[in-house]
Structures are given as C-alpha cells and as structure tokens.
Write a structure and sequence with these properties.
This protein is of the alpha/beta class and about 290 residues long. The protein has 3 domains: about 5-70, no CATH class; about 75-165, no CATH class; about 170-285, no CATH class. It contains 7 helices and 13 strands. The protein is flat and about 80 Å long.
Length: about 290
C-alpha cells in the first residue's frame, strides 16, 4: 500500500540525518526554516515517491482485477461476463464462439442493462445470481431475465445449476423517536428522510447483495446533521412481495432481536407503504 507524503518525507529526512552523522556532520531538521533548500528537496522527492507508489497500487489493482476475471468459472469472471450481457427487445443478441470463447459478434455497450450483480453458491452445485438494472435500481422484466438466464447457461460451466433472480427492492421499516437540535426544526424531517434514502441507495450500489446491519443504521442516523440521538422502537425488513411486518424484525419494542438482514433482491429502500413510511412513523423531539 502506498505511503503518504509525510511518511516518505520522514524516511528521507531520517536517512539524511543518519548518513551525514556517519561522516561526522550533524543536521538538525527541527531548525530548518520553511525556505531551507534541503527541506524543500526532501519534500519534493517525498511527493514524487508517494505519487509513484500510488500509481503502483492502481496498476496492481488493475492487473489483479484482470487476472481474477480471466479465471473461467470464478465469481469475478462470471460477474464480469454478466455485466457484459446485452439485451435488445427487437434484435436477438446471439453468442458466437471464437478461439474457444463465447462472446457477441458485435459488442454494443448501449445494450448492456445489468447495473448490479451479486453471486453466491451452495454446496449442491447451485450458483445464486441476483441482478438489478437502472438508476435507481429496479427489477429486470420477464423477457430480460429469460434472456439473461439463457446467456448465463451458454457461457457457464457444465454441471452447475444457475439460479437467477431479479425482484423489486426489499423494504426497510423504521419506527422511533429522533431527538434533535431545535435550530433544525424547519429541515430536520427532510434531513432524516433524504439522508436515510441516500444511505440505502449508496449501500445498494456499493454492497449489492450484502447485509443490512442494525448497528450501521443507528450510527448513520445519529450522524445526520441536526440529530442528537435516536431511539428505535421497531425496525423491520421485508421482501417486496411480503406484507408489512411479514419479514424479519431487527428491533422489536425497543429490543434488538436481530443484528442484520440479508436482502432478497440485493438492494433496499425505505418502506413505501402508506401509513408506514418514515414520515408516518418517526417522531421528532426538539431539545
């Protein structure tokens, strides 16, 4: 990992002091002025060294990514191929095999519709693939999912069962009391609502298919501008197809009963059902 400019500069200065001390010359960097030539030379070299190490890190990450995606059958390889899936409602996108590799005869990035993908596997040779499309994320249509399924089996590994799903977002229900700085009275409700919605959207984009942690939710809400504290009475997560409270409670009557929730769709939004939204179930108390 690349060192900071300060770390590189410290190493250079320490080496300079030690090397000069070896030949009987004493250098005291604490007495250097801001215009000291030796100080400027060390710092300039430190900037170059730190920049070079950052470039090395970028190059290494790029090579590692290419290497992982090149291993046929790996999660990284399969995810990369799914992101390259093309769909047209009018023109079938057919694969051709060239030098043992299946790909489209014509690559058209405008037809790539997969914007999020999470892959996991079971011990029964089953690979579960969750996908979503668009911004904000949404479910693929039936024809799109059918076409993607056919594509995955064409490029996939023999003997593996691929289970592809694409559904509407899971829902997060929040009920509780937020104590806030009274000077934010006019905007606190919007701050909290917009903050939570942005938090979930970012989480869905950066950790698609991952867990929703109750501790993270609480820490985030407390970090919203104007919020002093929050007491959750009930926090519940559900699949879109489930009825309200038909999913899993993280907090019930103020007690934590589950610390995390694994999304069915791979992504989540705040509860949208009338009467159960953030506006309906969060009480604001000024202090």
């Amino acid at each position: 990992m690349a060192r900071t400019v300060a770390q590189c500069n410290t190493l250079l200065v320490n080496s300079l002091v030690a090397n000069f001390a070896a030949v009987g010359v004493t250098i005291d960097p604490t007495k250097w002025s801001t215009r000291n030539l030796m100080r400027l030379i060390c710092y300039t070299i430190a900037i170059g060294q730190a920049t070079l190490e950052q470039l090395w890190d970028v190059a290494l990450a790029s090579m590692t990514s290419v290497q992982q995606k090149a291993i046929a059958g790996s999660f990284a390889w399969l995810q990369d191929r799914i992101f390259r899936f093309q769909y047209s409602p009018t023109t079938p996108q057919l694969l051709v095999v060239t030098n043992g590799t299946a790909d489209y005869a014509t690559i058209n990035e405008n037809l790539r519709i997969i914007d999020a993908c999470a892959i996991s596997s079971t011990i029964a040779n089953t690979v579960n693939i969750k996908v979503a499309t668009g911004s904000p994320l949404g479910a693929l249509s039936a024809p799109q999912l059918s076409s993607l399924t056919s594509y995955v089996y064409n490029i996939g590994i023999a003997g593996i069962t691929y289970n592809l799903t694409s559904t509407a977002s899971d829902k997060l229900y929040l009920e509780g009391t937020i104590y806030y700085d009274g000077s934010y009275s006019a905007i606190i409700s919007d701050n909290v609502k917009n903050g939570i919605e942005s938090y979930l959207a970012n989480l869905s984009a950066t950790r698609f298919g991952g867990d929703i942690l109750m501790s993270d939710i609480e820490v985030f809400v407390k970090s919203i501008e104007g919020v002093n504290d929050v007491i959750f009475e009930r926090v519940s997560c559900r699949e879109n197809a489930q009825s309200i409270f038909g999913g899993i409670d993280l907090v019930f009557f103020g007690d934590w009963i589950n610390r995390k929730y694994v999304t069915n769709s791979g992504y989540m939004v705040a509860e949208t059902l009338t009467g159960y939204t953030i506006d309906d179930k969060i009480t604001f108390v000024a202090e």
